[in-house]
Amino acid sequence: MKTLVILMGLLATGYACAEESTLKDGVKSAVTSLIATGKDVLSGTKDGVDEGRKSGESLDGAVVINDSEALQKHLSVRALSVEQTGNQQYQITLALRNDTDNIIRLANLQERKSLQLLDKDGFVAYLQKPHPEVTVPQKAAIRERFVFIGQEDTPVTLRLYGMDIALPSPDVSNKPQ
């Protein structure tokens, strides 16, 4: 009798464990699916906003740029200066020239894939804080400054929407101690 009770107890425990394992797998699958769907929704929403901004006309008639092909088509970009403004902190000044009849707007600059500062070994630093959109009037040029943090070595390249821009040597006359 005692053996029967122990055997039934072991069988019940095994059944409960099997149910728990099945329940755990079911919950895991549902949560995985929910997270994947949520990421797809967010990614699709962002892609839709970006595409809508590019294809639809903005209130001021600006052409919205968020990739290297459009950047090269609408603007000429040149690095004017590199200044070390703090420990592992650099300010890059770009000349953005618009020779078109349209206002040009650089969007999504706060995204890490849009704007990167690289040293000679390819190590990347990012903006100190999110940068607002940049608008360049038609038939005009602007100077735009970007501040990057965490660059341990001298920066040599600025990557804007995947397009590499060679940087001049940093101005060391104002180098912090």
The CATH topology of the largest domain comes to Immunoglobulin-like
Rg measurement, Å: 27 Å
What can be said about the biggest beta sheet?
A: 7 strands, antiparallel
Note the total helix count: 2
DSSP summary, beta strand count: 10
Which shape, going by the Cα principal axes?
flat
Distance between the termini: 85 Å
Q: Give the overall pLDDT as a whole number.
A: 83
Into how many domains do the coordinates divide? 2
Oligomeric status of the shown chains?
Answer: single chain
Structural class: alpha+beta
Helical fraction equals 25-40%
Describe this structure in words.
The protein has 2 helices and 10 strands; from the N terminus they run αβαβββββββββ. The protein is of the alpha+beta class and 177 residues long. It folds into 2 domains: 1-56; 63-166, Immunoglobulin-like, CATH 2.60.40. The strands form 2 sheets. It has a 7-stranded antiparallel sheet with strand order 2-3-8-6-5-9-10, with helices on one face. The longest helix has 54 residues, at 2-55. The chain is flat. The relative contact order is 0.15.
Task: Briefly characterize the structure.
The protein is of the alpha+beta class.
List the helices and strands and how they pair.
Elements: H1 2-55, E1 63-65, H2 68-74, E2 76-86, E3 89-98, E4 104-106, E5 115-119, E6 124-127, E7 134-136, E8 140-149, E9 155-160, E10 163-166
Parallel strand pairs: 1-4
Antiparallel strand pairs: 2-3, 3-8, 4-7, 5-6, 5-9, 6-8, 9-10
